[in-house]
């Protein structure tokens, strides 16, 4: 009887220990994002109505497919605030940019369905789309994990292809390229070849932070992400410095001499 009683106590004690271990494990397991019921998820993730853009001659329409809501991977991208501009340091483009996920063309007089553009990578993120002046091509940027590329789609064939073999600098607001009046080339801001790595901040400061305030007090607008120190200035120059190029549809590329901090570049009306 004593042996049976001892075994019973040990069995119960072992069961209690298992329950405690399971409870501790449940408390220490990392929390993950929870998904709603499929019906609600389908409603939230439903694609939005495509945006439409008319060609300059009003003969063709471009349809840009829109996603429902941005995913966690997009929202988790790094972000730098530099001089009022939010930059994604991984791509040298804007942070929190939500582009289109598909492109299609259709003649304005047609009643059929738009024809999807071929040649695009899987899950594209299309931004900065611009018609050529003659309506024969649409140039746009594609966001990748580590760069922004310039692509062009032929409206007649419905085929898209990369235009440049160098990444686009899309950090500054506005479009990073402009068509020339002859519809054969674009003026584009690119990442300088051989650019050095992103500046790092020294762990030990070389001097104090000095701020001056002078003059009379006055109401002033509050600006976000102002440059605060030399490191911010170095980061601003790093991400805003572009190599200006003129890229032709036939593959010719003319490069300007010296990279510089360029926020906008456009050709004159006569090219």
Give a brief rundown of this model:
This protein has 271 residues and is an alpha+beta fold. The chain is built from four helices and 16 strands.
Outline the structure in words.
The protein is globular. The strands form four sheets. Strands 12, 13, 14, 15 and 16 form a five-stranded antiparallel beta sheet that branches. Strands 1-2-6-7 form a four-stranded antiparallel beta sheet, with no helix packed on it. It is an alpha+beta fold and 271 residues long. 18% of the residues lie in helices and 28% in strands.
Cα-based radius of gyration, to the nearest Å: 28 Å
Mean pLDDT: 87
| Share of helix, binned | 10-25%
Q: Give me the secondary-structure category.
A: alpha+beta
What is the number of helices?
4
Strand share of the residues? 25-35%
Low-confidence stretches: none
């Amino acid at each position: 009887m004593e042996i049976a009683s001892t075994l019973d106590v040990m069995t119960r004690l072992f069961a209690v220990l298992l329950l405690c271990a399971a409870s501790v494990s449940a408390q220490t397991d990392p929390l993950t994002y929870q998904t709603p019921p499929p019906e609600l998820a389908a409603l939230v993730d439903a694609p939005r109505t495509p945006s439409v853009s008319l060609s300059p001659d009003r003969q063709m329409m471009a349809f840009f497919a829109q996603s429902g809501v941005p995913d966690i991977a997009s929202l988790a991208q790094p972000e730098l605030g530099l001089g009022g501009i939010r930059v994604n340091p991984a791509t040298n483009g804007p942070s929190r940019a939500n582009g289109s996920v598909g492109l299609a063309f259709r003649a304005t007089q047609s009643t059929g369905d738009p024809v999807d553009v071929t040649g695009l990578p899987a899950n594209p993120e299309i931004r900065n789309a611009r018609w050529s002046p003659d309506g024969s091509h649409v140039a746009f940027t594609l966001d990748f994990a580590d760069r922004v590329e310039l692509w062009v789609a032929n409206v007649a064939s419905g085929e898209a292809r990369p235009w440049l073999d160098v990444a686009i600098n899309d950090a500054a607001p506005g479009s990073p390229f402009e068509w020339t009046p002859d519809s054969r080339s674009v003026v584009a801001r690119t990442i300088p070849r051989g650019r050095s790595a992103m500046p790092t901040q020294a762990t030990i400061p070389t001097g104090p932070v000095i701020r001056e305030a002078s003059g009379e007090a006055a109401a002033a607008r509050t600006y976000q992400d102002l440059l605060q120190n030399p490191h911010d200035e170095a980061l601003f120059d790093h991400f805003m410095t572009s190599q200006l190029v003129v890229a032709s549809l036939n593959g010719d590329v003319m490069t300007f001499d010296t990279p510089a901090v360029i926020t906008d570049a456009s050709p004159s009306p006569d090219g």
